Amino acid sequence: MIVRKLYHNPHSRPDGSLETMNLTRRRLFAALAGGSSLPLLVGTDGVSRVGAGHTASIDTSDDNSYLSLDGAALREPIAESEATITIDSQLEEVTVTTLNASAFEFDPTPPISLEEPVSVEVTLTDGQTGVVTDTVTIELEGPNVRAVVERPLHVEEDTVVDS
Fold first, then answer.
1. Which of 7, 35, 71, 106 is placed for a possible disulfide with 85 were both Cys, Cβ 3.0 to 4.6 Å?
2. Which residues pair with 4 in a beta bridge?
3. What gap in Å lies between CA 79 and CA 124, rounded to an integer?
4. Are strands 18-24 and 67-70 parallel, antiparallel or unpaired?
């Protein structure tokens, strides 16, 4: 397939006449491939570090896992006065370095050593009412491991009954 394109190039002919350029399928695909790879070269400013090598897998499925999160608030809305999550790890010398959710506050706050299971109280931040669901981010760090876990957390505001 040959596509002929007419273009005006006043620098190549003094009289300003029209020239033709053969645009073959190969040239068309080469131009498209070059244009599509440009964002890959330009759009990498968001990557600060690239690494290859080890892939980590953190098992969170049962009681004997490397990291376990437990608490009814991870499954269904729980009253704020009863909302806790328990964090445990079978890894040695692991510390919770981040425990964050915009709608919740946690006690204790990081850093939290996981030499034994830790129960963390969950309360709503100011201005939160009703049933609040937010994603809690938990980051663990140890000598040879770093893991980030995100789970939805559901807490219901305690209702105050006037007598």
1. 71
2. 22
3. 10
4. unpaired
Domains of the chain (ranges; CATH) run 2-38 (no CATH), 67-156 (2.60.40)
Task: Give backbone dihedrals phi and psi of 24, rounded to 5 degrees, phi first.
Answer: -85, 170
Hey, what amino acid is at 90? Q
- In the predicted model, what is the mean pLDDT of the chain? 75
Q: What is the DSSP string of 51-80?
A: --S-------SSTTSSEEEE-GGGTS-EEG
Name 158's Cβ contacts closer than 8 Å, sequence gap at least 6: 79, 80, 81
> Sign of dihedral through CA atoms 131, 80, 102, 63?
negative
How far apart CA 12 and CA 20 sit, in angstroms, is: 12
Strand partners, 86: 70, 119
Asked whether 119 and 86 are in contact (CB, 8 A), the reply is yes
